[in-house]
Write a structure and sequence with these properties.
The protein is an alpha+beta fold. The chain contains 27 helices and twelve strands. A hairpin with a 2-residue loop joins strand 9 and strand 10 (356-358). It is globular and about 90 Å long.
């Protein structure tokens, strides 16, 4: 049959959106809004349908979940749990892997997966230092723990979306009880796999910075960020042409295109020196730049001391790593936009992103979740940055103190009640989540301004905007048409074979697009196919939702993996080595769950 004009428009919009997302040309939330506007302006969906995504139960539930998560953070509940990990984990690698993975899974039952991993990350770094085990052995288990934990709860973005897509096609929504049996078994089985097999496949890189003495820490960070050929020290001789001149008048940066990161003056480190800072004879300049440019300074009366300084701690300064966490106000901005050097007195010398170190024009990179920034500066400035929740400082002893520690028990009670109401389906889950968020504010667990700041509005606009594509798929009949074609392919293998086929497709798409977008694209088609074929649509929705969380093979498949890349010093192949087994185990356990708990065969 010929495709109608609306169907062709939906296909074109979907393909264009996928290209933009995969090529990272535009932010995903902006792509989602363009999808919404295109579909409504072309008449594929109505204005009411276009904006209905912002009032969907799924969106309200996700907003409530963000606020509940912040309440647990601000009252110190998560910090308390992280402290307990140090006691429970001991120094055994196998025991630590089990405890950390289990902790990530437990937290993700009631928290956003990314937030669960982010709040545990500093604690895992401390555990790694104390136990002398490299974080590369611990962070993938943390990441994968939050992912499998998300399979056993309703409170995961893809799970919430799939419930909403069921309701949009006239089917009952999902509840906690739909996820706990199958997802719970997956958690247990993958935990055993990680302890017995997976941890042996994890990298154990000596070059990682964590768990090292201060002197070895500096050396390790230099190696990790590949700074040897870019960081230089020059001593200013009395006859130098820049002696007794300010940095501005010396024209070092202007003429050579290099950056003076610091000046050592009589054993005192001056970081982020101002243009008015005077260069005195005997000063040592720490300069970042290419060799062909900096060696010109030999002709200016400066003497090359050495290529790198391994002992910055001797000058009461720190070489430290800073991670950009979820919900940071720095996301999408450059360090130049943030006036970072002026505001914090710290100099950024390199950026680590997706297994690669960048050392040129670092201030011009738009920051993203998981970016690791190598910074140098005074210890007091590092501690001041560590007190800002927009940045995660991994080498600082400073801890971000909870805002309302006396409300911790109240926050636990509120979260427990929300989980109880959700598990036993006492009231609709969106109402339970929203009521929990309101209770957090009313009881003083967090302030209303903090509640608004807790919501990741980029995620909300992404989901609400892409929901318009899901509506377009259903309204034009395209999801039913595609579902019918896929039914002809999968149904000969029975209802179980059909569900497995969609699960496999979902896992494949998730590795490159992420679970949130995948659920919005694959979900409507999968539900339509299940309804048309007479297969339990709820079972199909659960399988697709679990497929969206089976994000083990690539860093980009889920933000929690990206967040672990820098601190763990991982490269993409590390996820493949461990993730293949996790994916196979999840696949086999899901099949058993579909047979035992859903009666498919």
């Amino acid at each position: 049959m010929m495709l109608s004009t609306p169907e062709l428009i939906v296909i074109a919009v979907a393909l264009a959106a996928l290209v933009l997302i995969l090529t990272n040309r535009l932010r995903t939330d902006l792509v989602a809004l363009l999808v919404l506007l295109t579909l409504v302006l072309t008449g594929v969906i109505t204005t009411t349908q276009a904006f209905s995504g912002f009032s969907q139960a799924a969106v309200i539930t996700i907003i409530g979940l963000f606020i509940l998560t912040r309440g647990l953070e601000d009252t110190g509940v998560v910090t308390w749990l992280a402290d307990r990990l140090r006691v429970m984990g001991g120094t055994s690698e196998a025991r630590l892997v089990a405890v950390i993975m289990a902790a990530g899974a437990v937290l993700s039952l009631a928290m956003n997966n990314i937030a669960a991993g982010a709040v545990l990350l500093p604690a895992i770094m401390q555990i790694a230092r104390e136990s002398n085990i490299h974080p590369s052995k611990l962070l993938i288990p943390l990441s994968f723990g939050t992912l499998v934990g998300g399979m056993a709860t309703y409170f995961t973005t893809a799970n919430i979306i799939m419930s909403g897509l069921l309701q949009a096609q006239g089917q009952p929504g999902l509840t906690m009880a739909d996820f706990v049996p199958t997802g719970g078994v997956i958690v247990l089985v993958t935990l055993v796999y990680m302890v017995l097999v997976g941890r042996r496949l994890l990298p154990d890189r000596e070059s990682q910075a964590f768990g090292l003495s201060p002197r070895r820490l500096s050396r390790s960070l230099y190696e990790t960020y590949q700074l040897e050929e870019r960081l230089w020290e020059f001593r200013v001789e009395p006859t130098s042409q820049v002696a007794h001149q300010s940095l501005r008048d010396s024209h070092i940066g202007e003429r050579l295109g290099v950056t003076v990161l610091a000046i050592w003056h009589q054993h005192h480190a001056i970081f982020s020196p101002t243009p008015e800072q005077v260069i005195e004879p005997g000063d040592v300049l720490l300069i970042l730049g290419r060799e062909d440019r900096v060696l010109v300074l030999n002709n200016w009366g400066l003497t090359l001391e050495r290529g790198t300084r391994e002992y910055v701690h001797d000058y009461d300064v720190e070489l430290t790593e800073v991670i950009i966490p979820p919900r940071s106000s720095a996301l999408g901005k450059t360090l130049t936009d943030l006036h970072f050097r002026t505001q914090y007195g710290l100099t950024t010398v390199a950026l680590w992103r997706e297994g690669r170190s960048y050392r040129t024009d670092v201030g011009k990179f738009s920051l993203d979740v998981g970016d690791a920034l190598l910074m140098v500066g005074a210890k007091k400035d590092v501690n001041r940055l560590a007190a800002d929740r927009n940045y995660m400082v991994l080498q600082s002893a400073h801890r971000l103190l909870p805002d309302a520690p006396d409300k911790a028990l109240i926050a636990v009670v509120i979260t427990t009640v929300v989980l109880f109401l959700s598990i036993f389906d006492v009231i609709p889950i969106p109402i339970a989540a929203l009521a929990g968020a309101v209770a957090m504010a009313l009881t003083g667990c967090l302030k209303m301004d903090e509640a608004y700041n807790a919501v990741e509005w980029r995620v909300i606009f992404l989901i609400a905007g892409m929901l318009s594509l899901s509506i377009g798929l259903v309204e034009t009949g395209l999801s039913e048409r595609i579902g019918g074609l896929l039914t002809d392919v999968f149904l000969p293998f029975g209802g179980l074979g059909m569900v497995i086929g969609f699960f496999t497709a979902t896992v494949a798409v998730t590795q490159v697009m992420g679970g949130q977008v995948t659920s919005l694209v694959v979900g409507p088609v999968a539900v339509s196919a299940a309804v048309a074929a007479g297969v339990n649509p709820a079972a199909m929705a659960v399988a697709v939702a679990i497929g969206c969380s089976t994000a083990f093979l690539t860093p980009v498949s889920h933000p929690i993996n990206v967040l672990m890349m820098g601190p763990g010093g991982y490269i993409p192949s590390d996820f493949i080595k461990v993730g293949i087994g996790m994916t196979v185990i999840t696949f086999i356990t899901l099949i058993i769950g579909l047979i035992v708990f859903w009666g498919l065969g």
